[in-house]
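Hi R.,

Here's the chain you asked about this morning:
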Amino acid sequence: MPDLIQQNPNRWIIAAAGVIIQIALGAVYAWSVFRIPLTKSFGWTISQVTLTFTIAIFTLGFAAFLGGLWMRRSGPRVVAVVAGVLYGGGVFLASFSDGHLYWLYLSYGFLGGLGLGLGYIVPVATLVQWFPDRRGMITGIAVAGFGAGALITAPLASRLILRVGVLRTFAILGIVYLLAVTLPAMAIKNPPPGYRPLGWAPSAAQQKQRSSRTYTLREALGQWQWYALWALLFLNTSAGISIISQAAPIAQEVTGVSMGVAASLVGIISIGNGSGRFLWAWFSDAIGRRWVFLLMFVIQAIVFAGLPRIQSFPAFTGLCFVVLLCYGGGFGTMPAFAADYFGPENVGSIYGLMLTAWGFAGVFGPMLIAHVRQGTGHYSRALYMIGGIMLVSGLIPLMVRPPRYQGSSE
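And the predicted structure, written out as tokens:
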């Protein structure tokens, strides 16, 4: 193989560009700062305003799959630029939704969601090819940027709303997002064919945990392992998002704190979401992806079993923080997991389709905990139930192995 291909042509510059893109896209998690200004300005209900965010996230899941397919034809740069135009343009057009709820859904929800999905998959699918030696670490860094986006955007958006109003804030942020995605996109590119870092070769342990061939999307869907990984992501996300959806009221019921104190829990656990995306993914490079998922499921089983018995708010916050560490860890680790099992070349479409688990979990987790709470009058049974689901879920990482094509052996 030519020496040129063995070198590292500024791959960290590409990584930095990917993180900037993810931070800009992750600003969508700051949607809650728009809720009160929109309800007060136009008389919309909380449910009507919240549906905008739901549309964006639901659209993200399917757009990520489309983005993965498109990358195979046109490369990551084109997809990232279009993502920036759609995302930034969608947020900008939301500034014209004065009294028109349908326009908010179409602009921020649908167009913005398309941009989110197309943009989300680009850094993930590209960086696993540039960093075959550190797949978990690099995908963890990339998606940690997505988790950190709200921490940066929320205070900025809040100040802008106070100064110029909510609609003009959409216009300003739309332009910022457009530039923050499209400019770094100029640095995004695929590595040359056969690329690997200078002097690096996969260890025996890495070879054992990686597939011996590259799979197309069609071939991956013919392997039971794809559905096992989808289930891992779905189950782990369901647990974390059930806490995200009900964190404040659970804290009030279990620890007896006021609404204002309980609300502070939301910001604290969001830090766990962002940091878990990097920490667990980085750890997976050392011990393997499936062992990381096993640990996360066992830890969450213990935490959910203990949550109903905790009366101290700081202790309750600490346990919820652990759950969100694991929630973020699933998103940080799974792209590298998919690349290990099916090869990095088609991970954009293979993992992109796998992200539909995010959308389904976003419905299942909150509905489960809300339904059980309504039926029993308290959260404890729902928390125990989720803990039991986490314990049983630990069987999947114990069973899953890299797919092997006919003629090879495990």
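The radius of gyration is 21 Å.

Let me know if you need anything else.
M.
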